[in-house]
Structures are given as structure tokens and as C-alpha cells.
Structure to design on (324 residues):
């Protein structure tokens, strides 16, 4: 009888050098080198602690504060339970509704135009053109530039008297040049312009990655059938980009509707209240008027509204994409 046959029959097998304990672990189905579950928990513990400290606890705090009237100066002893009074006051507050309209105008115009600019850049930079890599990087730079630098730069460019933009427009003999951030009529459009400039690079990058994954065999079939560029875009490119577009719609709408730093730096909510969005109104209510309970109620109502809009966007695109 050969040695292999002897081991297969379990007769005369040499003793396991790791001892009977190791053989027992192997028979239980887990390899001896498998890490213990505690190792996995240790890896994700920093992220879990971060989510707990900076997301879950603040969210629960906001929910609890929305049912109270609390002035920060009075300390925790000054917290008074007021039930639904804050929510009733929110729906009767004309400043809230005005800020809501401004937020919808701001995000409702900036997000679609950002998508259009980002898609146009992605389609152009997806072609084999000179210095393509350099151009891709150049268009992405505004997205990673510090918001303070962006604000200061555009304040100088759009200065009503000394700004380069108005000086350029003046070359064509135009009268009544825009006053940009100094005008209650032009401040919001100027803010939208700056937002598109800073966010288009992000949309461009996401669209470029989606175009890399486009089904090339469908383009070849369309070319054989004699389809033009517009027909190929409408039948292949756009349906394949629809999930990406919905993702960008959701992320950009959430991000732009919550813009605070740029507004605080450039316009401080003005002139008047022409650029007071809901996020800036929440800041004013809490840190200028010290009405933290009411500001929490405004934040919760805003959260529910944005979540409902995102849900509608997601449901509207279901079944329309070329592939899920």
C-alpha cells in the first residue's frame, strides 16, 4: 500500500505538528489564518465614531431641539418644550417662504446649467484632441479651489466699476452695465454664475468616467446603420448617461441648496435679502438671533423637502436608462 493511499484511509497518517487543537479549528470550517471579527470592527471603528459624533448625534439633537425654545445664552437650563409650535411658526413665516423661493431659484437654475456645461465639456474632452489631459485637469481645478479664493476672485472680476467683466462689456458701448453683487436684481444671477463655474468641473469629471463605460458596440451598429451624431447621442449616449445624470442631479442639488460659505463671504445674504437662502436663514436664526429651536425646525422642514424632491427624481428615471 502506498503512502498516499495510507493517508487517504486515515491510517498511519503523520501527526499534525500544530497539534489536535489546530486540526479541530480546521474541521469547524474557518481557516486558521482567518482574522477574528474584532479585527474588522477595529478597521471600521474610526468611520463609525465619525458618523456617530458628526452625523447621528447632531441629527438627533436637531430633532429634539426642534420641539423646544432655546436661547444659547441661557444655557441648558433655559430649554423649554414647546411641542409643534416651531413647525407651525415656520409655515407662517414669510421670511421662510421667501428664502425657500430664493433657494429653489438658486439651485433650480444653477444645477441644470451646471449639468449642461459639464456634459458639453465631457463630450468635447472625450475626443482625441491635443492636450486633452491638461484640459481635463484645468477644468477640474475650480472644484478644488478654496471657497475664499473663489469668492475674492469673483468679487474683483464682477466689481461694478473696476471689474474686468464690466470693463469688457463696456468695450461694446453697453450702457447700464450690471451691478452684480451690489444689486439686489443681479446678485442672485451672479451667484449662480460663480456656482456653475466652480461646480462644472465636478460634473465634467463624472460624465467623463461614464462616457468611458459607454457601450461601443452600439455606436458601431449605429454607424453601420447610417445614424448621425445627434441620432447616436439621443438613442445611445443620453440613455446610457441617465443614471449618472440622476446621481449628479441629486448630489448637486443637495450641495448647492445648502451653500453657505460662498453666500456668507460674497453677499452676506444681501443686498437686502436677495441672496438669503434657507441655509443662510438658518444661520441667521440660530447664530444671530439665538433661536436654536426654531432654526432646527427650519432645518428639519428643509431636510424633508429636499428628501422628497430627491425621491421624485429617482423614481422619475426608473426604467428610462439604457442599463441600470
Amino acid at each position: 500500500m502506498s503512502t498516499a493511499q495510507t493517508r487517504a484511509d486515515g491510517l498511519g497518517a503523520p501527526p499534525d505538528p500544530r497539534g489536535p487543537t489546530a486540526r479541530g479549528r480546521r474541521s469547524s470550517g474557518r481557516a486558521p489564518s482567518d482574522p477574528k471579527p474584532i479585527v474588522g470592527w477595529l478597521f471600521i471603528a474610526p468611520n463609525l465614531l465619525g458618523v456617530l459624533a458628526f452625523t447621528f448625534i447632531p441629527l438627533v439633537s436637531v430633532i429634539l431641539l426642534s420641539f423646544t425654545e432655546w436661547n444659547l445664552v441661557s444655557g441648558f437650563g433655559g430649554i423649554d418644550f414647546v411641542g409643534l409650535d416651531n413647525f407651525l411658526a415656520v409655515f407662517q413665516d414669510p421670511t421662510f417662504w421667501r428664502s425657500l423661493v430664493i433657494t429653489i431659484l438658486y439651485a433650480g437654475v444653477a444645477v441644470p446649467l451646471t449639468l449642461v456645461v459639464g456634459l458639453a465639456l465631457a463630450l468635447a474632452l472625450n475626443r482625441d484632441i491635443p492636450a486633452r489631459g491638461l484640459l481635463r485637469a484645468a477644468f477640474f481645478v475650480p472644484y478644488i479651489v478654496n471657497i475664499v479664493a473663489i469668492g475674492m476672485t469673483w468679487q474683483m472680476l464682477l466689481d461694478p466699476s473696476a471689474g474686468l467683466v464690466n470693463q469688457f462689456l463696456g468695450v461694446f458701448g453697453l450702457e447700464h452695465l450690471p451691478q452684480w453683487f451690489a444689486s439686489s436684481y443681479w446678485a442672485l444671477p451672479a451667484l449662480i454664475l460663480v456656482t456653475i463655474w466652480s461646480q462644472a468641473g465636478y460634473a465634467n469629471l463624472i460624465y467623463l468616467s461614464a462616457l468611458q463605460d459607454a457601450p461601443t458596440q452600439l455606436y458601431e451598429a449605429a454607424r453601420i446603420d447610417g445614424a448621425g451624431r445627434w441620432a447616436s447621442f439621443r438613442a445611445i449616449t443620453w440613455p446610457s448617461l441617465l443614471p449618472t445624470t440622476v446621481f449628479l442631479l441629486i448630489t448637486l442639488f443637495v450641495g448647492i441648496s445648502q451653500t453657505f460659505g460662498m453666500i456668507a463671504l460674497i453677499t452676506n445674504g444681501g443686498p437686502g435679502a436677495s441672496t438669503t437662502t434657507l441655509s443662510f436663514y438658518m444661520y441667521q436664526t440660530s447664530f444671530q438671533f439665538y433661536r436654536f429651536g426654531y432654526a432646527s425646525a427650519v432645518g428639519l422642514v428643509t431636510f424633508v423637502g429636499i428628501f422628497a424632491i430627491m425621491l421624485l427624481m429617482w423614481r422619475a428615471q426608473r426604467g428610462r436608462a439604457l442599463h441600470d
User: Anything to note?
Assistant: Strands lie at 68-69, 80-81. Residues 1-14, 19-27 have pLDDT under 50 and may be disordered. The chain is about 70% helix and 0% strand. Residues 99 and 277 are 5 Å apart (CA to CA).
